[in-house]
Amino acid sequence: MYPLPLVRRVKIFWSSLKSWLSENFPEALKTLNKGVSEAQIQSAEDDLGFKLPLPTKLLYRFCNGQLPLSEHHRENMRMAHLGIIGGYVFYDHLINVHLSPLEQIVEETKEFYREFYDQDDQLYVGTINLQDGEMLPCVPKSLIRPTNTDMPQDGLLLWLEEHLRRLQNGMIKIRMLKTSRYISLFPEASPSCTSAMTNGVKVRASAVFAPEHPESRRPGAKCLYAYSIRLSVPEACMLGGVYYSSCQLYSRHWIIRWRDRVVSDVNGEGVIGKYPLLTPGQEEFVYESCTPLPDSPGSVEGSFTFVPGKLSRPEGKPFEVTVAPFPLEIPEYIF
Fold first, then answer.
1. Structural domain of residue 215, as residue ranges?
2. pLDDT in tens, 163-194
């Protein structure tokens, strides 16, 4: 029924993902369900009124997604950050993507698929304008292969395999959110994540596309990007050959470009109301913010002004720390 090469491919995917979760995110591994039966697949197709792509069927034969949210608020709070796809946080906006079980997919799909359904085996993400039918493809169309080939490829399988690659190569990693761990989708490696060192202060920066955010409805703000800035002093803060045991952020300067045009040039004190004090060897200070753009692509660059010592007791002259340009673009794979 299923092409053997495809069975092997899906088996390798699930085995590899479970191995990564076991080593790096065991609390999420515990949320995975056992696979569904062929009878359950058939029942889902009968309920939906159409056939599922072969790769999607196989994915759910091996694993029926993650445990669904329940009626218990405390349990839902515990589960909220355990999505195996991960997410991002900026201000009070939190996204964390779980792989839904088949029965939940069926129920939610029946609500609106008659308006949006297009049998092209692509995987789509709804934007803030989903009610108007606006959706974006999550994987490159050129990679999708129809079911009648020896190795069919649908959007879901390609999407999950790309996600696994990013986990394995360190492009995305586990981060803390208060007392919980989660998979952060902010890129951690180049070219999507840029890095610059100035006088011993290291700045890493990257962004994610957030099509579901309400800001995307604003006139001239079709694309909304969240960005993550990480500040640290890996070894020592050095200025003019002098070592300082600490330095503190005073202000920021951002230049935001859309294509070749500067659309925002901003100076301000602190970051999100904070003035982080950095010392050698401590963990990165991380903060997130966002910016809208009329379209893609764009970029952000700029600088931070630091004071050696502390703002309350400066030990030298202020100095600028470079923020290397990092991209704002609609990616080939949208997570």
1. 194-328
2. 999 999 999 999 999 889 999 999 999 999 99
